[in-house]
Amino acid sequence: MNQVQQDRQAFSWPVRVYWEDTDAGGIVFYANYLKFFERARTEWLRSLGLEQRALRETSGGIFVVSAANLRYHQPARLDDELLVTAWLQEKGRASMTIVQQAWLMAPCTKELLCEASVRIGWVDAGSYKPARIPPTLLETLK
Amino acid sequence: MNQVQQDRQAFSWPVRVYWEDTDAGGIVFYANYLKFFERARTEWLRSLGLEQRALRETSGGIFVVSAANLRYHQPARLDDELLVTAWLQEKGRASMTIVQQAWLMAPCTKELLCEASVRIGWVDAGSYKPARIPPTLLETLK
Amino acid sequence: MNQVQQDRQAFSWPVRVYWEDTDAGGIVFYANYLKFFERARTEWLRSLGLEQRALRETSGGIFVVSAANLRYHQPARLDDELLVTAWLQEKGRASMTIVQQAWLMAPCTKELLCEASVRIGWVDAGSYKPARIPPTLLETLK
Amino acid sequence: MNQVQQDRQAFSWPVRVYWEDTDAGGIVFYANYLKFFERARTEWLRSLGLEQRALRETSGGIFVVSAANLRYHQPARLDDELLVTAWLQEKGRASMTIVQQAWLMAPCTKELLCEASVRIGWVDAGSYKPARIPPTLLETLK
Per the structure, how many domains does chain D have? Predict the structure, then answer.
């Protein structure tokens, strides 16, 4: 991945670490990065005018995660401020791949904590059968 | 509450403490006792033949929590074995109150960690409007 | 509780509802209001200059929840915007009581979803034995 | 991966789906499979006589997840019974790779819901610096 390229295009969303996010190791529980990444994806979609509850009510479909590859580099701790990015890497008619990173925002520097590649598919909200992403939605994603 | 009386009648369910349950204080995150209590209530209902997903599909209603009062006495830690109880204290036509406790099961003793009184109401699964608990369900609860 | 009085003095913090917060009932899982309330308390403390990780490192103590009384009025759903308040009701030398509310912020109105009274104690971070809240901390809380 | 081979050697652990595990899509929230997989790994270690809290107190080290690759095949729903497996695929001096699967256990069949490859490293519990897995621990892992 081209870092400079990505920085220029990525959507970013601030996340604060609370007690709920940590575990007895004193750090953010690793499963919770999937929550942070999802918040950033949701806000990225919202920034494009796409609200997922409304999408479901109008189209009958929802996005689901079909694959996720995570790499953990450094731990985050209580009260840390993170910046979480989302960058659309690939887009097909039934799925897309989003590259995401969580950065620790320290006073004079930033440090990469965790990165992920997340594949999202579109399914019928009742049957969970894969379906084509509605064309207007695909266009909004550019 | 009469402890002896309750011990005799309470349903109990074992819960093990995993990393996911703890926080950076090194102990079980206090909100998670609500999860432990819900597991015990769900298994208590299941022991009476009541599966909540099936209940919803056949009756169109679900149980929701309308109030919870929690007292925290001692913390639990990673790898601890708890015993969580559920005891039907009061039963009306639209709601019921369940008294619950979480005990630490140590080799030679047990220690009360947390106790709660949880009020459960019955609502329509679509509108979330309060409704009467179905009579057959009420009878099963005795 | 005097509503007008409280509105004037309460600290408030916005919370957005994400997938992680909901359950199969289609609404926010009730245990998660304890997370929302904790975020608001943490931000209220931060607004007074109190960072909990730093507090622990300098004083050796931490706040723990010793009791929580919750009332659930209306459900929240995916994408909803909430406003969560925290208001210091009572303050002693070893504990304090905070009244909290979660409001749904709709375009033209707001609706009370959940309210709680949360008692917080101060304990030694190693032994979890109750202790007196450090005087400088107490003064900051006014 | 050789399925027959794996079935023969994998440790397995039952997991029940509760309200806390689901989201507004009506299915298990995908991040929660990381919790299910961790429970199975923890119980696999426990079956070998390794308790993680005791390990930390005696060795000063803990296991942390350094990478996770997840594939989601089918959703699970409230009340479903899962069987979660853990199988040690590779073992080095500072890390190991565990292959895990979550199966839906239906009356007459089982269905693969999710599979993951999880890389675990050993770190100092204070500094989170990578370290060698203690030799006695490595031997217990065979």
Answer: 1
